[in-house]
Amino acid sequence: MAKTRNTKQKEFIQKEINKTQKFFTAEDLFEKIKKKDNKIGLATIYRFLKNLRNKKNIFSYMCNGKHIYSKEQKSHCHFICEKTGKIIHFDVDSLDFLKDKIPGEISSFQIEVKGECKTCNQEPKNLLKRD
Q1: CB proximity list for 92: less than 8 A, separation 6 or greater
Q2: pLDDT in the model for residue 58
Q3: Which of 15, 38, 61, 74 is the most buried (most CB within 10 A)?
Q4: Domains by residue range for the chain, with CATH
């Protein structure tokens, strides 16, 4: 396996990642970086994130059809309203109900739950009027 060079661009990208405390996208990172150094392109950031992910130095999840990244191996859960498409993030405290179903140890998870959100569920239903 080829050894990658440690360039000033990579060091700069890593410093920006280190400042991040939550999930982020490559585009989020690019927006922060281009304000300080417009010579670093989005493709460079994607390659850098892919390399970090392959080394398990960063973790990625799918969110709204995009990869999002985290410095920590976190769990990522969504509730998606089928009526509006609104995505609501939520936390799950325990996966104890899966212990007997999974043949191994859970290190992280991603859950996507679909349904009708409380706001949509409370709206009056359109009823057909009969004459």
Answers
A1: 75, 77, 109, 111
A2: 92
A3: 61
A4: 8-70 (1.10.10.10), 76-120 (3.30.1490)
Q: How many CA atoms lie within 13 A of 104 on its CB side?
A: 4
The string of pLDDT tens digits covering residues 55-105 is 989 988 888 778 889 888 777 788 989 999 888 888 887 778 887 888 888
Q: Which two tokens stand for residue 35?
A: 């304000």
Instruction: Give me the amino acid identity at 104.
Output: G
Please give the pLDDT value at position 1: 42
Cβ-based neighbours of 114, under 8 Å, separated by 6 or more: 79, 80, 82
Q: Give me the sign of the Cα torsion angle 102, 59, 68, 50.
A: negative
Residue in 102, 40, 111, 78 with CA at minimum distance from that of residue 17: 40
How confident is the model at residue 101, as a pLDDT? 86
CA distances from 18 to 11, 15, 21, 83, 102 (A): 10, 5, 8, 38, 33
